Amino acid sequence: MIPPYVAERIEQRWANFARMHRVGVRLVCCSDAGVIQRKPHGVLPWGIIHLASIGLANVEALASATTVAAEACGVADRKGRIAAGYDADLVAVAGNPLHQLEALLDVRAVIRMGRLVGPEQLGI
pLDDT tens for residues 106-118? Predict the structure, then answer.
């Protein structure tokens, strides 16, 4: 169970993100790097879904974890979009996340550096 003061902080943070979005701030979605125990690998889809719940269109929420994130990290010349010459890291999901972001929770294939990989190669 989350202590009430923590729940208040989380709600305030999301309210701030919604307000920033309304005034035109470009939001970058969370990391999926598994950096600490309370932010394990695999949380990125939930961050994208939550951004949509505070007012971002599905396409904006997806961009927050792809093109916008690549721009913010200074790697937009090779990451963040599907295009010739860009790194070939892709996730195939069941369904169309532009219509329903929850499709991101049903990963069917991962392509890393242009090669199909399984969970054992990803360390998950």
Answer: 988 889 888 898 7
Going by C-beta distance under 8 Å and a sequence separation of 6 or more, which residues neighbour residue 75? none
63 burial level (CB within 10 Å; 0-12, 13-18, 19+): buried
Q: Which domain holds residue 26?
A: 4-122
- Lowest-confidence range among 3-17, 72-86, 94-108? 3-17
Distance of CA 89 to the CA centre of its chain: 14
Q: Report the pLDDT value the prediction gives residue 50, as an integer from 0 to 100.
A: 92
Rg of the chain's alpha carbons, rounded to an integer? Answer: 16
Name 98's Cβ contacts closer than 8 Å, sequence gap at least 6: 58, 59, 62
Number of domains in the chain: 1
Helix axes of 44-53 and 58-65: crossing angle, nearest 10 degrees:
140
